[in-house]
Amino acid sequence: MVAAGAEVLALTGNTPHIVFDALQARVPVPLVSIITSVSQTICERGLKTVGLIGTGFTMKADFFKQPLREAGISVVIPTDQEITYIADKIHDELEQGIVNPDTRDHFIAIIKRMAEEQGIEAIILGCTELPILFNDVTLPVMALDTVDIHIDALFAALDS
């Protein structure tokens, strides 16, 4: 891609960011991070406590949460049982293009519980398939669509 003239690069999924630093060290052009983009957006909006849903790995591992914590943002994840449910539904339904209203309702209930019990101000949709589940739905808290945020950051990187 660089040989073809790419000015910036991006990993287009959340979970692949586990290798972001190693990849950035190997390419001569900027690699725009979805995690850094989300962190900047959260800071710009003045949010202090956010929830994170996504693949099981994204919710459990530290690669997404640690940079947010370093920016002073508290990151809340679902319970172990909820993590299993979310991960299974992403794999078995959303990645297959299946949008089940019962699944949507259950996800919304999880987000609502996180808001009520843990004080999240927003929910990070930390899997690129999640926005299709919430299309035309109002969530109990602000949704942070990592795909949209990343796209905006990519355009900004090209403009600078």
Can you characterise this structure?
The protein is built from eight helices and six strands. With 160 residues, the protein is an alpha/beta fold. The strands form two sheets. It has a four-stranded parallel β-sheet with strand order 4-3-5-6. It has a two-stranded parallel sheet with strand order 1-2. β5 (122-126), α7 (130-133) and β6 (142-145) form a beta-alpha-beta unit. It starts with 8 loop residues before the first strand and ends with a helix. The model has no long low-confidence stretch (mean pLDDT 90).
Give a nutshell description of this structure.
The protein contains 8 helices and 6 strands; from the N terminus they run βαβαβααβααβαβα.
Overall average pLDDT = 90
CATH architecture, please?
3-Layer(aba) Sandwich
Strands side by side in the biggest sheet = 4-3-5-6
* Rg estimate, integer Å: 16 Å
Distance between the termini: 19 Å
CATH class: Alpha Beta
Task: Please name the CATH topology.
Answer: Rossmann fold
Helix count from the secondary structure assignment: 8
Question: Any idea what the shape is?
Answer: globular
pLDDT < 50 stretches: none
Number of strand segments: 6
Largest sheet: 4 strands, parallel
Q: What fraction of the residues are assigned to beta strands by DSSP?
A: 5-15%
How many structural units, i.e. domains? 1
Q: SSE string, helix = H, strand = E?
A: EHEHEHHEHHEHEH
